[in-house]
Structure formats: structure tokens, C-alpha cells
Amino acid sequence: MANPFIAGPQSDNLIKASHETFREFAWDFERNDFIRDDNGQYIILEGNAALKVWIYKCLMTERYRYRAYFDDYGAELEQFIGKPNDGTEGTELYRYVKEALQVNPHIRSVNDVFMKQDKKKVTLTVSLDTDYESQSVEVEV
After folding, report:
1. pTM (2 decimals)?
2. Quick one: which of 25, 120, 104, 18 has its CA closest to 59?
3. What is the number of other CB atoms lying within 10 angstroms of the CB of residue 96?
4. pLDDT, mean of residues 116-138
5. Residue 104 and residue 24: Cα distance in Å, rounded?
6. What's residue 51's pLDDT?
7. Rounded to an integer, what distance in angstroms lies between the CA atom of residue 56 and that of residue 13?
8. Can you give the pLDDT at residue 70?
């Protein structure tokens, strides 16, 4: 008799899903809102452009705060507010950003995270490798 608790085909679907082209709704980073076409329909991006939107939204979402998201979505960056930018904080920041982004199966590796602070504005520059190409993404947090 076969074991009813083994779900073999489901794991095949997960592997197959990670090889599909990544898609995400287009996002206006200035207005912090979706981009729509002239007919009011949402525009859908693919590949690296879609990943850029996903990375932005992931880093802008505080993990565990919103019940609409699973616990592995978002980043724990609020704890760094008001702390000095020394070596230990930089290492921790890199670890938290890497942990947040590597949830996405299309992101192969997070290589570097640079933080630049200008008065009240903090910009993260993340250098990473994806299924499509290497890229750097700037996110103002």
C-alpha cells in the first residue's frame, strides 16, 4: 500500500514554478502606487524589472507587522533606526537584507549592501545576482 502522506508531485511543481519568468505589477516608486495603462488596467512587468519592484516592496515592508503577508516576507529594518552606522550594524544590516531577499527563488545571491545616509534619508544599494542577470537596486527606506 502506498504511503498517503508523501506528496511527490507537489515538489515538482515548486521546482517548475521557480523556473518560470517572474512577474509583478508595475509600481510607481515616486507615488508609491501601481502603474496603470490608459484603459485603467494594471501593467505587468517580467524578469529583472519585476524583481526590482518585488525587492523594493519587500524592503519597504516591515516583517511580521502586517497579517496580509506570510512571516517570511519583508525585512526587519526598523531596529536599525537611530543606531550608529558602525561595522557591527553594517554586518547585521547585510544579514537582514540578505535573509529578506533570498526568500524569492529568482534571487540567487545577495553580494553587497551599501547604506548611504543624507540627513533623514537613508538609501540602500543592494548588489545581487538573479536568474536573469546581476543588478544593483537602490531603495530609499
Report:
1. 0.76
2. 104
3. 18
4. 87
5. 12
6. 93
7. 27
8. 78
Any bridge partners for residue 45, and if so which?
24
pLDDT single digits (tens) 44-97: 999 999 999 999 988 888 877 777 777 777 887 776 766 666 666 667 788 888
For residues 110 and 9, give the distance between their C-alpha atoms in angstroms, rounded to a whole number: 30
Q: What is the pLDDT of residue 46?
A: 94
Percentage of residues of the chain with pLDDT beyond 70: 77
9 CB contacts (<8 Å, ≥6 apart)?
none
- As a whole number of angstroms, the distance between CA 90 and CA 45 comes to 32
More confident residue, 39 or 120: 39
β partners of residue 114: 125
SS (H, E, C) the chain: CCCCCCCHHHHHHHHHHHCCCCEEECEECCCCEECECCCCCECEEECHHHHHHHHHHHHHCECCCCCCCCCCCCECCHHHCCCCCCHHHHHHHHHHHHHHHCCCCCEEEEEEEEEEEECCEEEEEEEEEECCCEEEEEEEC
List of residues 6+ apart from 15 with CB closer than 8 A: none
